[in-house]
Fold:
Amino acid sequence: MFINPYNFAAIDEENVAREQAIRYGGKSGVITVTLRFLTEAHVGDGNRKFMKVGAKTGIYGSSLKGLLRATAEAISNSCISMISDELSGSLKDDILIKKCDKDNGLCIACRIFGTTVKNSIINDEEESFSFAGKIKVMDAVSVDTRKITKDAYLQNEHSLSSPKPLRHRIFYFDNNKIKGRKFYYHHKKANLPQRGELKIEVVSENSEFEFEIHYNSLTDKELGLLIQSIELKDGFGHKLGMGKPLGLGSCKMRIIRLKELNSKDRYSKLDSVNEIEGKEIEKHIEGLTKSYANGKALDLSRNSQLKDLLRLDKSQNNNGSPGALQIKYPSQNWFSANKNVPLPPDGILDKPRTPPTKKTEKLQGKAKATVDEVKEFGTVLNLPDNKKGYLSKDKYESKGIELKKGQSLEVTVGEFSDNSKMYICNL
Ligand SMILES: [Zn+2]
Structure:
């Protein structure tokens, strides 16, 4: 048995809460955060080196912002902004994930971190809309002046690239929908090879960094979510930088100082900054986090998979058998032998399994579908039962068929023995 390096935290697309963002009022201030790596880490630039800040080592604020956003999105069931980069252009149409836009308002993650939407097409003209977000994440700088970086080696260039979703489709998709937000499990210790072709700079375990987050006009709820996303409770941690499948980048963040600007008095008084640190900070933060999720602390209860993905002791989960489970990619041989095995919710592969009962299909008859939208790579169909389907272009273009919006098509409707529906387009 072994654990696949990544898994997905589910999205509940129907229940993404959206509202208009406020630009004025609310809370403003500066949060100071320390970040301590639990495993070696590589957060570098194109040269595979860390940023230098004088004699110290730095981490780009954009990397930290990306990490905080991914966490905030997952905790709050926000829209999915981070995953699209990894998926190729053709898949973006395929997965049909709704984004926030001007008319429907923004999810809480888009309100805090900002968004640009450019795919709303009205009268053939592409409309773009953007909201700048309300936080600025500054670069992090190492706390220690002594050298904390060292050279490490990876097998080759491929060791830092992520797997291609199209190759392992069954791991990524469920009924043609992306399974959720991708996260990498924590390792107990990074698994770096002794030698290899690719030299990278890493920081050692226990390296500590400090950075600031400047926030502006956040509502209590938005600030509450931001704080929960920074400081995960004991037993949970973040993963930052490259080489996550090898165990690099596990870290803990802690808020050590908070400067709150009193917005009302902002321009009239000089003493309107409230600075909290030391013993006071923990209690104060707890109060602020309660504004999010009705007084609950980090709300992972709704999403047991996210909880499993953020746990620091995942690799120690041995399900009763002796020894810790290794976290590693399945080999090519494994994939060839297990073509139709989906990624289980706990990520553990090669578990003794009861053979799946064979799915049988029962035809229910024919029905009509209509063309909803013709896109660059294919067509979105309105199927019976308010379902949407996707028909890739090569399926109909090879037959010389041209589809137009509103056109109706005949589909065969059926049901599998596990009660899931199937639709076959009769072209
Ligand atoms: Zn959004």
Q: What stands out?
A: Residues 361-425 form a domain with the OB fold (Dihydrolipoamide Acetyltransferase, E2P) fold (CATH 2.40.50).
